[in-house]
Known about the structure:
The protein is mainly alpha-helical. It has one domain: dinb family like domain (Four Helix Bundle (Hemerythrin (Met), subunit A), Up-down Bundle), CATH 1.20.120. 55% of the residues lie in helices and 4% in strands. It is built from six helices and two strands. A two-stranded antiparallel ribbon has the order 1-2. A hairpin with a 3-residue loop joins strand 1 and strand 2. Helix 3 packs parallel to helix 5 (100-121). The protein is globular. The two termini are 26 Å apart. The model has no long low-confidence stretch (mean pLDDT 94).
Amino acid sequence: xxxxxxxxxxxxxxxxxxxxxxxxxxxxxxxxxxxxxxxxxxxxxxxxxxxxxxxxxxxxxxxxxxxxxxxxxxxxxxxxxxxxxxxxxxxxxxxxxxxxxxxxxxxxxxxxxxxxxxxxxxxxxxxxxxxxxxxxxxxxxxxxxxxxxxxxxxxxxxxxxxxxx
Length: 165
């Protein structure tokens, strides 16, 4: 499994040294690599912001995820898979033509922010601090980081396919 700290290599390495035109290459109706990088960045920024805002709160109790959350957790965390056709939540949808340099910087910053949060919050807040994922329910910081590793790996494959095509 990929480590969280290696996410810049997983996501950005295929784009390294490529012209901007490659960052915008995509089949009709699909996201280009710049949009994919922005999409995963938005999710990381959102979860990091949630943990930063909640870090001084009293210990929390995880809300039950419901049957959909249980199924989604099983698919993502156990099988590493999500069925085709799921739309990204509104807060994680990329802009039409993100600037490659800007999204690269934001992506690297989001990874660094999660690593800093891990140093600040773990192990003390390992099991009593949560941020809600729209599909998976309340997740701890470690679970969010595990989700981001899976999510970035999923989208890194799409980036490689775009660049190969």
